[in-house]
Amino acid sequence: MAEQPELTIQGWGPPGTRVAHVADGALELTADAAVKRTLPKAARKHLARELGWTPRSTPPVPVDSIELAPSRLPVPVRAELVTLLGLENVRDDRDSRLRRTGGKSYLDLLRRRSGDATDAPDAVLTPADTAQTAALLELCTRHGVVVVPFGGGTSVVGGLSGTDVDDRPVVVVDLSRMAGVVSVDVPSSLVTAGPGMRGPALEDALAEHDLTLGHLPQSWEFATLGGYAATRSAGQASTGIGRFDELVTGLTLATPTGVLELGHAPASAAGPDLLGLALGSEGTLGVITEVTVRVRPRPRTEEYEGWSFRSWAAGLAALQRLARHDLLPDVVRLSDPDETRANLMLASGAGARALRGALRGRGHGDGCLLVVGWQGLPTIVRARQRAATSLLREDGGKRAGTRVGESWERHRFEAPYLRDRLLDVGLLVETLETAATWSALPTVYDAARRALREALSTPGTQPLVMTHLSHGYATGGSLYLTVLADRDDDLPIQQWLTAKRAATDAVLAAGGTLTHHHAVGADHRPWLDREIGPRGVDVLRAVKATLDPAGICNPGVLLPS
Ligand SMILES: Cc1cc2nc3c(=O)[nH]c(=O)nc-3n(C[C@H](O)[C@H](O)[C@H](O)COP(=O)(O)OP(=O)(O)OC[C@H]3O[C@@H](n4cnc5c(N)ncnc54)[C@H](O)[C@@H]3O)c2cc1C
What we know:
This protein has 20 helices and 20 strands.
């Protein structure tokens, strides 16, 4: 198995590279110098004007100066773990712990960039299989050591804290040694793999069988199958192929009180679906040690194209009608006017200028761009495309051409790299997501934007809130909001927490879900009872008490404290 690159500690990507893009279906990484051009002068000016932001240099502290407290793992416990896993699989050196400190939210990055690693775990364990994982959970239960499963480390909701309210020592269970394909069942379109396997490695392995999983979140380069399952992730083509939780047909969950094998048959009526309890459990019930997912033949063709609409409301109405007729494309991404304008500013060159002119010419100058994509057999793709095209036209959409769609496809993994650049020049950059029914979406959209605007405006500055509908369903869609604002250099964490609190309250009050695909983590846990009700929280607590009676499994996430 090829070595999987480590994520850089203070940002995104493998160390030494700053941007990824897709070329001929493969991911390419570009070195630092070339990336300076990714924020064109026009975009810089646009942002300065919109935000009242003064560009300034705010680089991260050198990695060497990040502070780390000594490991608190008791020596006898460490010795027992070494006996179980081997010396090289129980690590408490600075680099191992630092690399598995927290995830990649804006707050995580602020902490790491300022030299704070007080949430570092006390040790990193790398078990080889389910049996070792179950044994280490039993051992940690006996000694009162908290266990945090760690996949790719890309959580954006505080899912990976190494601190414990009861001040117990914390170990991270890094699943990178369990990262291979276990079996491929071609007739049943199923693959079983280790939880530490990342997207690119899995796709390479499946390509040998002319199969694909097709799950492509923007964190695809680093996130893992176990992490996708534990957080109920959604990918860029989830509208068509389904979210990750819909693709999982079985999994193995090692818990402190035993191993659960869930799933197996293509469908079952044998009582409530326990698989659904493990999906989205975020490490609170144990460690997912194997995942079985439904795969499909590699698409013979992929078509991406752009459309424009006069307004956000017109774009939403058109997608709603596609949904009602079961004609939503596999990729659906409708940008609101703020995001459309910013994207056109960020895209330099003659193509972007021509598109801006064309949109103005058709009266869509303040309108919305829609990117759609279809995958599969050419005849089916063409038929679906034709049917959707005629409805989009009837609803006032105008084709903006394949270049818009292809440009989105080529640049779709770049935003996280660009985020590091924006953090370097004094900006607040964070994302939020939710989902709502078609009828509630406009209210949720207005409420979230208003709350963010009010919370982040100061005399002379205001945030830029850019939104797109990222996934469509028969009954509604998800909204993904990107927020840029002048960073409060003195209290940046407080600045974001205030805005996040206001936006979350507003989204829930308007009928949106707490999270469509980022999961609950530590950041959303105070609101879980508003989502599922106090009895719902009691049910989850009862399940946890059965599987994890000592409460050692990722106690800092999901369930309200
Ligand atoms: C730049 C960026 C882009 C992103 N884009 C998307 C996107 O498009 N769609 C999307 O859904 N999400 C996205 N995310 C969020 C994140 O990538 C997903 O939540 C992903 O599923 C996490 O996978 P991971 O392997 O990195 O898990 P981690 O971050 O390592 O862990 C996430 C949570 O799951 C638990 N966990 C991990 N592995 C296991 C396991 N084997 N057993 C039990 N619990 C486990 C952890 O304890 C933690 O609570 C993005 C994040 C970033 C930073």
